[in-house]
Write a structure and sequence with these properties.
The complex is a heterodimer of chains A (117) and B (117). By secondary structure, chain A is mainly beta. In chain A, 0% of the residues lie in helices and 53% in strands. Chain A starts with a strand and ends with a strand. Chain B is an all-beta fold and 117 residues long. Chain B starts with a strand and ends with a strand. The chains are: A mainly beta (117), B mainly beta (117). At the A-B interface, strand 5, strand 6 and strand 10 of A face strand 4, strand 5, strand 9 and strand 10 of B.
Chain lengths: 117, 117
């Protein structure tokens, strides 16, 4: 069975600190996709990144970076020089891959990030 | 661009009442989904559809019914609402990419807040 675990329920940092959100997943599929979503206080889900299981390159987008390690089944998300606007709930999610891919997502429990000024 | 639109956005129901949540997408997507979000549990899949006229159960389907009579619409019904169905409901849609590793881009609606008293 597929599973996503975000062990950090809440994280509180002071502005400009770096913060890493952990995500560990379980799947028997050899082809799969990993996602990160942001949910700001307004409630909508904002897509951040999608990574497929055959692409282990780390990715950087501005202050955001992602570290994908198949050996440890982890897909961690780092925010560099955090800002108050980064305060949100962040979700990691997993989707099956291959020809039968229906796009169903398995979400982690979410990590609430509070960035204090 | 409307994307994925959910109606209503807020609703208060009494136990035993029925209601229907409507999801509409204007991207000609084949796949549509209904998720519910509860504190500390992330989002969980209720039902999904892989095309017009098809529906399938997700992780937490009990107490809900769905219909997809038109490709652009996916309806979620509560026949007899219970307090346990108090939640935030998200609809999503995605297309099917025929390239093997390209994956699905999944678009979410803004959410519907439902309270059952």
């Amino acid at each position: 069975a597929q599973k996503v675990t975000q062990a950090q329920t809440e994280i509180s940092v002071v502005e400009k600190e770096d913060v890493t959100l952990d995500c560990v997943y379980e799947t028997r599929d050899t082809t799969y996709y990993l996602f990160w979503y942001k949910q700001p206080p307004s409630g909508e889900l904002v897509f951040l990144i999608r990574r497929n299981s055959f692409d282990e390159q780390n990715e950087i987008s501005g202050r955001y970076s992602w570290n994908f390690q198949k050996s440890t089944s982890s897909f961690n998300f780092t925010i560099t020089a955090s800002q108050v606007v980064d305060s949100a709930v962040y979700f990691c999610a997993l989707s099956e891959g291959g020809s039968g891919n229906t796009g169903k997502l398995i979400f982690g429990q979410g990590t609430t990030l509070q960035v204090k000024p | 661009n409307a994307g994925v639109t959910q109606t209503p956005k807020f609703r208060v129901l009494k136990t035993g009442q029925s209601m229907t949540l409507l999801c509409a997408q204007d991207m000609n997507h084949e796949y549509m989904y209904w998720y519910r979000q509860d504190p500390g549990m992330g989002l969980r899949l209720i039902h999904y559809s892989v095309g017009e006229g098809t529906t399938a159960k997700g992780e937490v389907p009990d107490g809900y019914n769905v219909s997809r009579l038109k490709k652009q619409n996916f309806l979620l019904g509560l026949e007899s609402a219970a307090p346990s169905q108090t939640s935030v409901y998200f609809c999503a849609s995605s297309s099917y990419f025929r390239q093997r590793f390209s994956g699905n881009t999944i678009y979410f609606g803004e959410g519907s807040w439902l309270t059952v008293v």
